[in-house]
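Hi W., the adenosine-5'-diphosphate complex you wanted:
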Amino acid sequence: MLFNNRSTDISTLERVIDYTPLTVAPAATVMAAITLMDGSEDLNAPTNPTRDRQNYSYVLVVDPNRPIGILTRRDVVKLVTAGTDLTTTKIAEVMTAPVMTMNITAITDAITALSVMQQHRIRHLPIVDECGLLVGMVTAEDLLQGYERLEPLASILPEQESGSSEIDRQSEASLFQSQQDLSDFVENAIGCLHWVAADGKIIWANQAELDLLGYTSAEYIGHYITEFHVNRTTIEDLLDRLLHDRAVREYEADLRCKDGSIRHVLIDANSSWHNGEFVRTRCFTRDITKRKQAEEDLKEFNAALSHAMEGIARLDLHGCYVWVNQAYAAAIGYTPAAMVGMDWQRTVHPEDLHTIELAYKQMLDLGKVEVAARGVRQDGSIFDKQLVMVMAVDSRQPSIGHYCFMKDVTDTKQAEADLIHSEHKFRAIFDSMSQFIGLLTPDGTFIEGNQAVFDAVAVDRAAIIGKPFWETPWWTHSPELQERVKAAVATAAAGELVRFESEHIWADGTPAVVDFSLKPMFDATGKVTMLIPEGRDITDRKRKEDILRNIALGVSAKTGAAFFQALVEYLTKALQVEYALISELLLPSQDRVSTVAAYGNGATLDRFEYALLDTPCQYTIDRQFYVCAEQLQQQFPNFALLSEISAQSYMGVLLRNSAGQPFGLICVLSCQPFSETQLMTEILNIFAARAAAEIERQQSEIELQRQKQDLARSNDELQQFAYVASHDLQEPLRMITSYLELLERRYKGQLDAQADMFIAYAVDGASRMQILINDLLNYSRVGRQDRNFEAVDCDPICAQVLTNLQVAISTNKAIVSADPLPRVYGNSSQLTQLFQNLIGNAIKFRSQEPPQIEINVRSIEGWWLFSVRDNGIGIENEYLDRIFVIFQRLHGKTEYPGTGIGLAVCKKIVERHGGNLWVESQPDRGSTFYFTLPPLLSTLC
Ligand code: ADP
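Structure:
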């Protein structure tokens, strides 16, 4: 054919011309034509080996072999929409006629054909020979498929054929004249084109080509193509192929841009020959840099997927593994290669197959689904897996299988199970705790609590959770407490621990005291993340504290008349009973008692008596202890008092006096049954012991008082006797002494020597008796004298004493020195005797040395401390106390004369002044007698 001899783009055009176009006779029905379009019913039509088409977008009407009209799919759609009966309507009635054709001799190349289509806004162009007979058919779609390079042309091709018009030779001629239009089109086409001459020089390039590489036409056209190819071998190889094959499709090459960057391109090239000579090459360049990059990226992505930690697999529409990454295969115990082609069911636990099937169906609807199931490994072991199934699609097909992302969650599941178990364990502990524990957000919303929290106020969790804490039934009984809790939440949210006691009434009506605290919890940055309210029911502790306090108050009540009254009052409070009484048995019959103290209903009760017969108190006396915890009145129906005071329970303890004799009893009565008998018994025993001790103390006090009185009386009598005796004895003694002295004077030397001696003894005895009686009289006088005290200056007293003792001082060559002495409050004659006795003794009990006596005084704690120091014989330690006892002497009267009364008198004098007298001494080292006397001022005060 002429067409084949043309030196134009024949090969491309040849490929796209359908030499066996779909044809029908004009008499055929539209339906027949449609059937032909949908499938090749035209059994007579020879098959085109170059085509592999099942559908046609047109049917050409020929008569017999000349195209007279055309019917396209779009026309069919219009006919259907118009309601045309397709089975009866003849195609000649509805075809587009005449049909525009093109003479095969007018076609230079595919672009020409496309340009014609574009110009006439048609998509189907029958090719006829010079006689107008049908040669073949070119469609826009085929041309575009053949010339992807010219793809942009598709956008300018008509959507629909315009009315057809026959193209004759004249129109063909005019078509050729539109070369300039075509040139413009090619020049401005988006596709990149360049022409290369046989010597390798670029002889033409369109703007798209120049834009792609960034050159001006001067920088590109006229230059050798090798300058722009990165790889010289590429261009040599391309040339070889062109010389050999004349055309090259999709040849990959790298072109260098002006800015130095490389463009990866696909080149479609064909060669022009003239007289067997290679003339030039036309190259269509497609920039695939991005695609290449995308391919590289995809490769990397695939590599990454292969090594992803998560198991990833691709399955086909039949559920067979198509691709599996390392992690997926390893989780099941295979290699990726071994899994390709494997059915999914082999990797799922038989009991979970249905679950996966359901999930798969869901995925088909939703595109993606997540499901948990058990997997089976190659070795048959089972594991828990979490799957995400995602439908795989590509641009051509709605579904090509699915992706499966798998995680082995055996460990996670185990951890979850452990966590749940641990949570259950801690929840159980939490709920079993008797104290109340909760959890609040920092703004006070209650989010969790242990069982005790809900039980206390008898509400469900739901009734509290989510509420502000202060609005829960825990606090709503007291608006004041609600405010307090609200304030506590604010304080705790600021990071401070809050604590207070609160009073509640539990759901069962029990009043309670709670030790409540609100503790803030912090995160690592010190921010308060939650608040922990905690409460302890301290009702019992509080009650015991009350009991203890009342016990303490009761048993520590002052002694004396009010004691028993206080005791019974605190007893009622400690035991929380209405009545408490202490009664004593009335003598002589002991069948009646009288209350010592009684307390009832918050008030002291007057004393009263009652008979013991048929009373619980009689039981107490008989048994030492008696308790009736309930139904008291039924037990003692004859004791009317019980019903009068509505008593229901009783407890009593027998009281004994110090001699062990029953004295009475202590008892309590309550208008309610007793609940804690043991505790009450212990408390009552404490009160009973204290009551018994007080009874004993009071009895001892009475006895002591009595003894004191007896002693005072006998002292008085003794003093009286001593005085009377010493006073009255003086007269007869003086007479005896006078007559004995007379006897001695008159008859001395006239009687025998023995008589003289007897008389001398008698005289001596009488005079000693006189001294003794005088001393005794002195002693008894000190006790008898009135406390006739006044301010007494001790200096003159001391001077008087030294005068009195002048003879003894000079005889013994004694030296007496004295501090200036103070004024004291006392009796001057007694103080004179005190000083005289002490200084006299200091001289009398002298050593070999002449006596040296010092009288000192100093003030100690407001009192005067006097001392009389000597350098005499001293006193053995063991006798230091004895010397102050009357008649006690350490020496014989021949050795040191005396009666042993002096120091006893001194002691009595000092004690009558409110002071003390004692001695410090060592044998041969002298003695110091100390005594204290009250100061003048304080005594007066
Ligand atoms: P009397 O001096 O009459 O014996 P006192 O009652 O004055 O009786 O003294 C009792 C005893 O205390 C004395 O017999 C003496 O043994 C002892 N005594 C008293 N004063 C002194 C003293 N200054 N030095 C040593 N012994 C003393």
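Residues 1-10, 40-53, 148-182 have pLDDT under 50 and may be disordered.

W.
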